[in-house]
Amino acid sequence: MPDRGQPETDVYLERRRRLMDRLRDELNLSERVYSAMLRVPRHIFVPYNYRDEAYADTPLPIGRDQTISAPHMVAIMCELLDLKEGHKVLEIGTGRGYHAAIVAEIVGKSGKVITVERIGELAQQAIEILNSLGYENIQVVVGDGSRGYESEAPYDRIYVTASAPKIPEPLIKQLKNGGKMVIPVGNYMQNLYIVEKDEKGDIKKRVWGAVRFVPLFGEYGF
Ligand code: SAM
C-alpha cells in the first residue's frame, strides 16, 4: 500500500519470498494474500534481537508475554475473511501491528483497518512501526477490544488474534449484515470459528479447526 520508493534488496526480502512461496504452495494462497504478505517486512515488526528469525514460520515474543502471530496463521485468517478492497475491518489484538499491515495492504486506500490493543506499550510500538512504513489506513486504538469498537461500527470484517471464552456479543452486533468474523474460542482447547451474518442479520457459525492463541482478556474475555 505505501509507496516505499526503491525496491528492497536486502537479505530479508529473499527470506520472505522463500517463506511465502512455501506457504502459497502448502496453503494454496490466493494471489491477493500472497502478494500482500510479500510486501510486509515482518522483520521490522519483531524486536530487534529476533530479526534473524523473522522469516521462520513461528510466533515470536514481542514483550509483555505476547507474541507476533505465525505467518501461516495470518495467511489462513486473511483467506477465511475473504477480504476485499474498500472493506472496513476491525482487528482485536494489535500486538506490534504485523497482521494489521497485511490486511491494510489488501483493503487498500479505499479501505480501513481499526485495530484495538489493551497494552498501551504495544499499541505505541505498533503506531511507530506502522508510521515508519507509511501506512495511512490503519487506526490503532488502546482499549478493551473484547467490547469491540462501537464508534466506527459496523464493520465488513472482524478478526480476533487472542482466544475468547465465547464469541463476544458486542462483536456480533458490530458486524455488518453480510459481514464475516474469524475468532479463536476456548482456553486449553481452542477452535477457530468463522461467523457469518447474512443480509437479514441471522448468524451462522462454523469451526475451521484447532488453533493456539494467547488469551483474550477484558469484559467479554478471560
Ligand atoms: N495481531 C498481532 C500480530 O500481528 O502479530 C498478534 C497479537 S497477539 C497474538 C494478541 C494480542 O491481543 C496481544 O497483543 C494482547 O495484548 C492482545 N489482547 C488480549 N486481550 C485483549 C483485549 N481485550 N483487547 C485488546 N487486545 C487484547
Describe this structure in words.
Helix 2 packs across helix 5. This protein has helices at 11-27, 31-39, 42-45, 71-81, 98-107, 120-132, 169-173, and strands at residues 60-63, 66-68, 88-92, 112-117, 138-142, 155-160, 175-185, 190-197, 203-211. It is an alpha/beta fold and 222 residues long. The protein has one domain (10-211): Rossmann fold. The longest helix has 17 residues, at 11-27. The chain starts with 10 loop residues before the first helix and ends in an 11-residue tail after the last strand. It contains seven helices and nine strands. The mean pLDDT is 96. The structure holds S-adenosylmethionine. S-adenosylmethionine is lined by residues 66-69, 92-95, 98-99, 116-119, 122, 144-146, 161-162, 213-214, 216-218, 221.
Give keywords:
Rossmann fold, two-stranded antiparallel sheet, binds S-adenosylmethionine, 222 residues, 9 strands, globular, seven-stranded mixed β-sheet, alpha/beta
The third-level CATH topology is: Rossmann fold
User: What small ligands are held by the chains?
Assistant: S-adenosylmethionine
Largest sheet: 7 strands, mixed
| Order of strands across the main sheet | 5-4-3-6-7-8-9
Q: Count of DSSP E strands?
A: 9
H/E series: HHHEEHEHEHEEHEEE
Task: Give the low-confidence spans.
Answer: none
